[in-house]
Write a structure and sequence with these properties.
mainly alpha; 19 helices; globular
Length: 456
């Protein structure tokens, strides 16, 4: 089944790379500077070595001076670094377009594992295998084409790697329902808990907290504290400890580098500042704050908006909760949806300022559990109403096809492609990397650097 979803995911990725991301220009016409931060951090590692900053990420300031970033580890850009290092070893300089294709492949991987999870949950409802595959395909396609996930092509985010490991954690948890003491499954679940927390320690902590709350309070069967500690709590503590040790070592190795990253009081809003937002309801109402960082200006009112899909999927979630109270929702489905949803709710409740300022980084945390409810749980609940004739499955498939194309059109409007130009290696023209870090890397020939300049 994993191979089946992988083949479907590869087809989605291939279509994306020949349409939405087919342009040779690697940088798009936008004033937001985030798309150069990944190149900056990887360039620093290429020049100084990964262990020079103990694996911590380095960001540029407004003058392109390096700063040690304390908010996350650099784990989520290590695959991109390896791709850039390999291409540099072969061609003499890093291929940034290949690195960005790798970014999109990560989003595809997340969709594959999410599709597999959706299939397993649908089968728990007793849905026929072929129908369960159809539902899971739609979940996979809708997730992959969500505009914020397509944006990962331009900039890898910690949450892009957080979700695949969260799906592995939930898949192992679902399998353990039949084999609760299976050591292999417990090891897989513990490893996934460690990695999802290491990639994004706040989202990881919120997810593990949600899972533990559900495990202790949901239903009559409760895992032992020993099992919870092995598969969730100890890996969480180990990942956070490793993150803190890396940061301490990076500061010791690079005392000259200033440290950047918003403080706890600022991101939680407990400092009382009202420059960016007033209260938690602005998470839904104030998308204009984030849109100001994007160009062109006439497109800004369209950015980060999906109201009708939000209300439709929330309705599906309410239906799921009502059915769950009547004992009609299998425990793995409830645990999966509420663990993912709880991760977002805890994150948004605590770090409300971050969610308001950067919704494009966090919407996918809310989008994912809502889509599981809409495309897996509710159709699986309603299918018996039609005596398993497949009518609900057909409606869901048509909805998934329609929504996938709507989202791709939204993405094309939100981030319009630049005019095609003849370009050189990777379609890239950016300030030479020595302007960023002071150490030159081999560059393509001057006549091969014709292309679209990066807006700084």
């Amino acid at each position: 089944m994993l191979l089946l979803f992988l083949l479907f995911g590869v087809s989605l990725l291939a279509f994306d790379l020949v349409t939405l991301h087919s342009t040779n220009a690697v940088e798009i016409n936008t004033s937001i500077p985030t798309i150069r931060r990944e190149e900056f951090a990887i360039t620093w590692w290429l020049q100084h070595g990964y262990f020079h900053t103990a694996g911590m990420k380095v960001n540029p300031d407004v003058q392109n001076n390096p700063r040690l970033y304390r908010s996350v580890t650099g784990g989520f850009i290590v695959p991109g670094f390896l791709v850039a290092k390999l291409s540099q070893a072969i061609t003499g300089y890093p291929d940034w377009r290949l690195m960005r294709m790798q970014n999109e492949a990560v989003s595809m991987l997340a969709s594959v594992l999410l599709g597999l999870l959706g299939f397993r949950l649908s089968r728990r409802f007793g849905v026929r295998p072929f129908h369960a595959v159809a539902l899971a395909f739609m979940l996979q396609a809708v997730y992959f084409t969500f505009p914020d996930n397509l944006w990962i092509f331009w900039e890898m985010t910690p949450r892009a790697w957080w979700l695949p490991f969260a799906c592995i954690f939930l898949l192992a948890d679902e399998a353990r329902l039949d084999r609760p003491s299976d050591r292999t499954l417990m090891i897989v679940q513990a490893a996934a808990a460690f990695l999802l927390t290491y990639m994004e320690h706040i989202a990881g902590t919120a997810f593990i907290a949600s899972y533990v709350i559900l495990a202790l309070l949901l239903g009559e069967r409760r895992p032992s504290w020993r099992q919870l500690a092995i598969v969730a709590i100890i890996p969480l503590i180990a990942a956070i400890a490793m993150f803190q040790a890396q940061f301490a070592l990076a500061k010791a190795l690079n005392p000259e580098l200033p440290v950047t990253g918003a403080a706890f009081m600022k991101r939680t809003g407990l400092d009382g500042e009202t420059i960016y937002y007033n209260g938690h309801l602005d998470i839904a109402h104030r998308r204009d704050i984030a849109a100001r960082n994007f160009a062109p200006e006439n497109i800004r009112p369209l950015l980060f908006q999906w109201p009708w899909l939000f209300f439709t999927s929330v309705t599906a979630l309410v239906v799921m909760m009502i059915a769950g109270m009547r004992g009609r929702v299998p425990r793995p489905a409830t645990v999966s949806v509420l663990s993912l949803l709880g991760a977002y709710l805890i994150y948004a409740a605590v770090f409300s300022q971050a969610i308001v300022v950067h919704p494009y980084y966090y919407d996918m945390m809310l989008f994912t559990p809502l889509m599981i409810a809409l495309f897996i749980v509710v159709p699986s609940l309603l299918e018996p109403v039609t005596r398993e004739q497949g009518l609900i499955i057909v409606i869901t498939v048509f909805l998934g096809i329609w929504l996938s194309w709507v989202q791709m059109r939204d993405y094309a409007i939100w981030y319009p492609q630049p005019e095609p130009k003849k370009v050189g290696h990777g379609g890239r023209t950016v300030p030479r990397v020595e302007q960023w870090t002071g150490v030159p890397l081999p560059q393509p020939a001057e006549d091969a650097q014709e292309g679209r300049a990066l807006s700084l």
